[in-house]
Amino acid sequence: MNPAMWISKTGVQAQDAKLQAIANNLANVNTVGFKRDRVLFEDLFYQVEQTPGAQRSDGTTSPTGTLLGNGTRILGTQKVFTTGNLQTTSQALDLAIVGNGFLQVEMPDGSTGYTRSGQLQLNADGRLVTAQGLAIVPEITVPAGATEITISESGLVSATVSGSTTPQELGQLQTAGFVNPAGLRATGENLFTETAASGTPTVGNPGSDGLGKLRQGSLEASNVQVVEEMVELIAAQRSYEMNTKVLSAADNMLQTLAQAAR
Questions:
Q1: Interval 99-118: pLDDT, tens
Q2: Bridge-based pairing state of the strands 86-88 and 112-115
Q3: Does the pLDDT of residue 197 top 80, yes or no?
Q4: Rounded to two decimals, what is the model's pTM?
Q5: Contacts 24+ apart (CB under 8 A), 137-146
Q6: What is its main location (predicted)?
Q7: pLDDT tens for residues 204-214?
Q8: 169 and 63 in one domain?
Q9: Residues 128 and 96 placed together within one structural domain of the fold
Q10: 187 and 124, same domain (yes or no)
Q11: Structural domain boundaries, residue 126
Q12: Phi, psi for residue 157 in degrees, rounded to 5
């Protein structure tokens, strides 16, 4: 079997994976707080015909050697945590994080999840929750009949309660930061969970310890750039086509060899 066929097969598989990542990015171009994925590749092991620096039969030294590659494979995928554009909504419970950090939420199993999506709402108990109904951590409860809810850049939540003209403090929002946010596990529904690669979270008030500030009445848009993704799509398509042409060329060479042997 011609080794070029196996090598081009790895190239086709690699570009197919890249195409899947691009499709996911484009599908989430309007998802609040979404972070685009990029695919990382590495070359496979090399077939060493002659080691660089090896002694030749004529007494000279090989300056480069002879190393034949065996294709490529996916090294991993990486979330790109650049900040998306801010969209003004003028909704009191919409929050955007300007800078680093994540809002903390209570997962159904009791663990803590992390999100950049600030589309917050109130549940039946007046507790601040995400659009999926997950409670914000620390717990913030808004009394019935409260008006003019305000959230400061540092996360202080206050509201005007019935019978009072002075705003009442309801609680303090905190955000979490990670040494390696790209190491977080994306679980869908705009959520991330901690892993060994991400490190443990640093929790603090927004605007402190390198954490971003909050902006009320705004949402962070997806950081997917459609033009950039389309360029990546074209490049992946062309690379896919070239690898399939190598498959076809290797097949033609084998066919020619088979006919010559008859």
A1: 999 999 999 999 999 999 99
A2: unpaired
A3: yes
A4: 0.85
A5: 137/104, 137/105, 137/106, 137/112, 137/174, 138/104, 138/171, 138/172, 138/173, 138/174, 139/171, 140/170, 140/171, 140/173, 141/170, 141/171, 142/170, 143/168, 143/170, 146/170
A6: other
A7: 999 998 999 99
A8: no
A9: yes
A10: yes
A11: 86-220
A12: -105, 130
| Claim to verify: residue 211 and residue 111 sit in the same structural domain | yes
**What pLDDT is attached to residue 46?**
85
| C-alpha Rg value of the chain to the nearest Å | 27
Any idea which residue has 């590495």 for tokens?
A: 42
Place of tokens 């305000």: 150
Strand residues in the chain grouped as ranges (E): 37-43, 46-50, 66-69, 72-79, 86-88, 95-98, 102-106, 112-115, 121-122, 128-129, 136-137, 147-151, 156-160, 168-172, 175-177, 185-188, 191-193, 202-204, 213-216, 218-220
The residue count for the chain = 262
Q: Are 187 and 113 in contact (CB under 8 A)?
A: yes
